[in-house]
Batch of 2 targets.
Target 1
Amino acid sequence: MSAAPIRFDVIIVGAGQAGVPLAARFAEAGRRVALIERAHVGGTCVNYGCTPTKTMVASARAAHMVRTAGRLGVHVGDVQVDLAAVVERKNRIVTEWRAGVERRLERAGDRLTLVRGNARFVGERLIGVNGTRYTADTIVLNVGARPATPNVPGLDRVPTLDSTGIMELRALPEHLIVLGGGYIGCEFGQMFRRFGAPVTIVHRGQHLLDREDSDVSVAIEDVFRREGIDLRLGVSASTASADQGGVRLQLTDGTAVTGSHALVAVGRVPNTGDLGCAAANIALDRRGFVTVDDAYRTSAAGVYAVGDVTGGPQFTHTSWDDHRILFDRLTRDGDGSPARTRAGRLIPYCVFTDPQVARVGLSEREAADRGIACEVASMPFGAIARASELDETAGLLKVLLDPATERVLGAAIVGIEAGELIHIFSTLMQAGASPRAIVDAQAVHPTLAEGVQSLVMRLDRFALT
Ligand SMILES: Cc1cc2nc3c(=O)[nH]c(=O)nc-3n(C[C@H](O)[C@H](O)[C@H](O)COP(=O)(O)OP(=O)(O)OC[C@H]3O[C@@H](n4cnc5c(N)ncnc54)[C@H](O)[C@@H]3O)c2cc1C
């Protein structure tokens, strides 16, 4: 690497959910941009995350709907899931979306250069890729994260799957063990149960999805148990060993579980181990995430980081929002208005189990931990007329109100289309509006959204007298 480095105005490392739009928009704004990517453009979301999982969740829901159609008076024969066909469909959709990302990059024109290869810092604002060095005054890291491996003795000597590998299985496991009851473990656990495999979820927390209030977690646990998923909660794997071509996990409560396949879904670690951050004076936290301030600045001048690698909530929409905040900050010409930062943003999210689990703002537990006073209303999802007509009654709705300002502090919904319904609350919260706005409105009957209005009217101040 002795020749002079190739200079760009902006270098972006990682073609993820922030990197792609940033690269395209910087190029369209006249900057010379290099986007460095070592795998597929589109990053985790398109290739190994949201797109493939939600495509497969749709197949699993179809199997479930057909299998349980008798409750609606519709009788069908045996349900056969052709996992190879499910995976083919998933691959087709992923390929289409990836091609869309490639077209987006091409549309940005000649100022954007896509460099294929692994980027590693070799000095301050100096990056090596395949023996060539690149430099720029502005560098943005969007390198994302990958599945974590838990420290369970023996686990490295038995065959395991991660969230990417499990989506390549062409035949159903005889028994799937899922290690981890967070959102990835829950989505895959239910998906493979509905495909027809026996499933055991082992989770060290007392409840699945244990960032949520316990009533929210219990609602989803009830559904999982009814569907025949074996839940081992409050226990961890103490050792792992091979067992007849499969895996045996010894658990901390003295029991053991044996499966033909084991999915490890215990969190995600940042892709910084081989990035050479020390050579560029880019500080990492103790877990390896890049340390950034509210304006995405790292400890190295001119170097920024966005998306999952900053250690914040790891969602596609958050990474995408990072891109637009950073782009505004780096291109605005100082009209005096304050630029947005990453601080204090409202970050709604949804777990795509069935029923879905969605939340925005504070949970009841978080409000209590922070000593924040709130009025709380909750109701069963089955109290919604539309839900009972559809026979989709599992779940609940919950809202937290600030008594002083009459603003929504948070909301959680477990129910079908919870990921859509939660936007009613996030829009109210983003607008700083009182939920009185939806009390006075007419809600279309019969819809699920009508239930959100009913929920709010369970708060004393909005109740009909
Ligand atoms: C199974 C699964 C399901 C998910 N489901 C959802 C969901 O439903 N909704 C949701 O909001 N989020 C979901 N996520 C999370 C979501 O995918 C991520 O939060 C999102 O992709 C944002 O990531 P990012 O932009 O930070 O980086 P990524 O999308 O991870 O992109 C990082 C890119 O950087 C590249 N890279 C890394 N290191 C280097 C290097 N040294 N040199 C060159 N290139 C490099 C990688 O190859 C990758 O392409 C899911 C994740 C998983 C794993």
Target 2
Amino acid sequence: MIYHLGIDDHDSPFGGCTTHFGLELIRFMQKKGIKIIGYPRLVRLNPNVPWKTKGNAAVALTIEADMNLEELGQLIWDKSIEYVKNISHGFEYKRKPGVVIVKDCNALQKMDVLQNFYIKAVYDIIPIDLAIKVAKSIEAIYMGSRGIIGSLASLGFEQPYTYELLTYRKMENWKKPRGEVDLDSLIKFDEEYFPYVFGNVDYIKGKPLILSHGNDPVLYGIRGTRVDSLLEGMKKIRINEEFYDFLIFKTNQGTDSHAKKGNRIYQMFYDKVIVKEINIIKGGDVIINTVDNQRILVYKETGELNSAAKLLRFGDEIEVLGGIKPSAKFNKIIEAERIIVLKLSNKNIERNPRCPRCNSSSTSRGKNKGFKCKKCGFIFNEKKSIIEESRELSIGTYQARYYRHLTKPIFLQLENK
Ligand SMILES: [Zn+2]
């Protein structure tokens, strides 16, 4: 029998993470004769959720097991509790792990329900009651608490996708400082496999982006659109720490899956707006006020996005992608991660015509009285010439400089949609 299994909220600041639980679960299930089908999926959900776990990611697996749903559920849930108690100590950090399992079937309706739930979970806030209602409607079994939401949502993810190869630290090293990546080897890999790899190097700071931090059991993760490039990367990137194991995940990272049109706090915002005015506030952040009274915040740290925002002005038409956050001053504010300048409201400037005799500039003699040359004094009749004003800003895409899991890098070509 084929089952789909979702897990979430197994991380904690103490140690452990949901993908690492996924790895341990795969190793455990394989020993029990359970087959893993296809790639495990690493599914990023709404980045604006205020109580999110680090990176807000859930993991989904498809498996083939000779047991019924209840037996399988008990087996997985026991492992989940064991992991949270002994490895992540998650309950001490108020973590609320969850597990969802659903029988595979060809009923399209079931897949539709899951896909719609996933789409919602990537840009919106979902209450646990709704997750449970949806789980019941497709005869899924669920265990745990808040993690049920992400677990269920992860089961609806199919495409578009990229891959991430994660390597895991040996447990005896967890409390020791993490190994250091040889930056030259990483850059060499990143350049060789461009544009099929992304989010691996911060070229502005000259630092690797692949390393995990703190007590995360992940040593490093490399991202790209092709599995063979990532496997090459594992060989080519030099790091002075041996890893314990690795997994390749299919993931929604870098796919813009969160680019959906919301309007409430903690949802995503994705829409076209007309600029009313720009306020540059202390420290260099920019607030864009729109004609329909939206406020868009562009942090200084976003680099070229911030510089572009400073050059916007009344009448410009832009498309904005960002998270809607609460604001004490404005009630809500959109934190922009990307702006596409669609149309610039260039003004047409009228100029007095040049003298037909000596080509010097002229002055107007008053309405309908013609012009007088400034140099030779010639008086003539001519229409004013109209010149389109030039702007420092050009039409195009401006994106936040820092890496964000779901945001598609400008250069990235997805090979699936
Ligand atoms: Zn003249």
